[in-house]
Amino acid sequence: MFREDGFFDPFRDEHYEDAEIIKTYPKGFLHAHRDRMPHNIPNVYLKGQGEYFDALRENILQADRGAFVAQQALQKTAQQWRRTTRCMGRSSQIEQWAFLRSKYPPGVTSHLR
Q1: In 2-69, where does DSSP find H-type helix?
Q2: pLDDT, tens digit (0-9, with 9 covering 90-100), for 82-91
């Protein structure tokens, strides 16, 4: 939802009861949105988030262009991610990732380290 003061998506119980919000969204949207919220995966808020995603994006593009095969792209990404993790502080990244992982839906966390 766009508002004059910025973008807004409902995420608190009271948002789904707010008359202005109910008026803004199409019929049925808020029910479907609220129903799916427990299954959403939060954004990856880690220090260096941009660096992690830049490395992944660049290596996928290079593999897509044929500069190297997918396995090499993954290996290069992993190497760059290790470097970013060291720069950001490995222990604090582990702590932040553990917190983020705890917010993921149960069916997803079993697939994560």
Answers
A1: 19-24, 29-36, 49-64
A2: 999 999 999 9
